[in-house]
Amino acid sequence: MSSSTLRFDVLIAGGGLVGSSLACALASTGLDIALVERVPVQAQQAPHYDERSSALSLASAVSLARLGVWPALAEAARPIRHIHVSERGKLGVVRLHAADHELAAFGYTLPNRVLGRALQARVQSLDNVHLFNPAEVQAPLRRADGVTLRLSAADGEHTVMARLLVVADGAESPLRAALGIPVRRYDYEQTALVFNATPRQDTAGWAHERFTGCGALAVLPLERRVAVVWTVPNTAVPALLAQPPAALAAAASAAFGQRLGGFTQIGRLARWPLQGLHAERLVDERVVLTGNAAHAVHPIAAQGFNLSLFEAMRLAEVMRQQPGDPGAAALVRRYAALTAPRRAAVTRFTHWLPRLFERAPGTLGHLRSLGMLGLDLAPAAKRAFARPAIGLPEHLPA
Ligand SMILES: Cc1cc2nc3c(=O)[nH]c(=O)nc-3n(C[C@H](O)[C@H](O)[C@H](O)COP(=O)(O)OP(=O)(O)OC[C@H]3O[C@@H](n4cnc5c(N)ncnc54)[C@H](O)[C@@H]3O)c2cc1C
Questions:
Q1: What is d(CA 189, CA 199) in angstroms, rounded to the nearest whole number?
Q2: In angstroms, what is the span from residue 47 Cα to ligand 1's centroid?
Q3: For residue 24, is it within any domain?
Q4: Ligand 1, atom 26: nearest CA belongs to which residue?
Q5: What is the pTM (predicted TM-score) of this model?
Q6: How far does the centroid of ligand 1 lie from the alpha carbon of residue 178, in Å?
Q7: Hey, which residues does 83 pair with through a beta bridge?
Q8: pLDDT, tens digit, for every residue of 105-158?
Q9: Do the beta carbons of residue 318 and residue 338 sit within 8 Å?
Q10: Which of 67, 240, 257, 347 has the greatest number of CB atoms lying within 10 Å of its CB?
């Protein structure tokens, strides 16, 4: 164990998509930032190099541009110019057009690998961000002036002290547990099957959300392909995965309906059991929780990363406005107050949306179809429906 203590203003534990974005955001404060990631960032098994693609809201794209990351993403990003929401076996559909909101796009689809690599490259270019990788932090000990942790890295063990600890070490967060912060979990009893697919027709910038009665298919535009997130009940997974790829492509096409002419081919498949998770305290003395460590939401509305990026931009903004001690109680409280309404709205929306479409039989199902027809015709209602996709203007940090 090294005898000297390494000191930082902020230590971010976990360098996934969220921890890395936060490091980029906090760099603008001029503070000394440590980012600690356990898995070697170049390795294929690093969590942010997974098979998924993310739908980024327009607000997130603007934020990533402000962080200097967008130039590395622009080529791979595919604009979402239209959104189509439909329900299997029902008449009502909702069509949203970015042009109706005087926008070129609601947001963009990006493979997580591309996003992860661009964030890592940006982190490594920042003078005041020190990346420890591969390295792991453990045993947090809070004191009045900061948090002390043990850091195990390739060159041995160190003691690090930070005036603020940001916990971004994922849903199972060992640090959250070590800090004694309880969580509430909700098992959706669903699995997200994630794969890329080749559609017969070009997407022409359309993103689709298709409710199937027992789940949903989100189909997002990519270069010559689409990114599919197919949510199915856990009980259906073994039979679906036992099929050869061609049969699975046919099953996905049947669930999706005739849009895009169906899928001719599907790529490597990954599965994500879906669990909602909410930490009971998102800030604590000299501690902030973010990303999946704070809130893992249902992916139905593609909001998880978007929410965490919003939080990252807000934390940086509060630190710029209140220079001095980044772990000061007043600063942490102000950050919590500024982010709480958005967090609550995303949590509610993502929790109830799938249930509304899955559990409503008979009359309620028909009313919902009528509601969707009405929504498709009413411009004001459509604008309200589009807001989560765009990320509200007031959520764009100054
Ligand atoms: C199927 C699916 C589709 C989704 N689609 C979208 C979408 O379209 N749009 C959107 O906005 N969101 C989406 N999300 C949500 C989004 O993927 C998550 O919000 C995001 O990945 C969370 O990242 P994270 O960095 O918090 O967690 P993680 O990716 O779990 O990263 C945590 C990191 O911490 C590291 N770590 C753990 N312990 C330690 C330690 N002790 N020391 C150091 N490092 C440690 C881990 O190695 C890991 O790299 C989707 C989610 C799912 C499941």
A1: 29
A2: 7
A3: yes
A4: 291
A5: 0.92
A6: 19
A7: 96, 207
A8: 999 999 999 999 999 999 999 999 999 999 999 989 998 999 999 999 988 999
A9: yes
A10: 67
Give the CATH number for residue 26. 3.50.50.60
**Helices 379-390 + 362-377 axis angle, to 10:** 90
Å from CA of 16 to ligand 1 middle: 6
Which range of residues forms the domain containing residue 47?
Answer: 5-55+112-185+276-356
Pocket of ligand 1 (CB under 6 A): 13-19, 36-39, 47-48, 52, 54-55, 136-137, 168-170, 174, 192, 194, 229, 272, 291-292, 299, 302-306, 308
Are the CB atoms for 101 and 386 separated by under 8 Å? yes
* In a domain? residue 169: yes
Which tokens go with 248? 């699975």
Instruction: Report the range of poorest mean pLDDT among 180-189, 204-213, 225-234, 376-385.
Output: 376-385
The alpha carbon of 198 and the centre of ligand 1 are apart by a number of angstroms equal to: 26
Contact 295, 303 (CB under 8 A): no
User: In this structure, how many other beta carbons lie within 10 angstroms of the beta carbon of residue 315?
Assistant: 27
Structurally, the chain folds into a number of domains equal to: 1
Residue whose CB lies within 8 A of the most ligand 1 atoms, among 37, 231, 343, for a mutation test: 37
DSSP string computed for 90-123: -S-EEEEEGGGGT-S-SEEEEEHHHHHHHHHHHH
Cβ proximity of 195 and 266 under 8 Å = yes
Quick check: is 86 in a domain? no
pLDDT(397) > 50: no
Instruction: Report residue 24 as tokens.
Output: 């980029």
Distance 28 CA to ligand 1 centre (A): 23
Would you state the structure tokens that stand for residue 137, as one six-digit string? 């932090």
If you measure from the C-alpha of residue 307 to the centroid of ligand 1, how many angstroms do you get, rounded to a whole number?
Answer: 12
CA 345 centroid distance within chain? 15
Cα 93 to chain centroid distance, Å, stands at 26
Residue 81 included in any domain: no
CA distance 209 to 230: 10
> Residue holding tokens 């390295």?
135
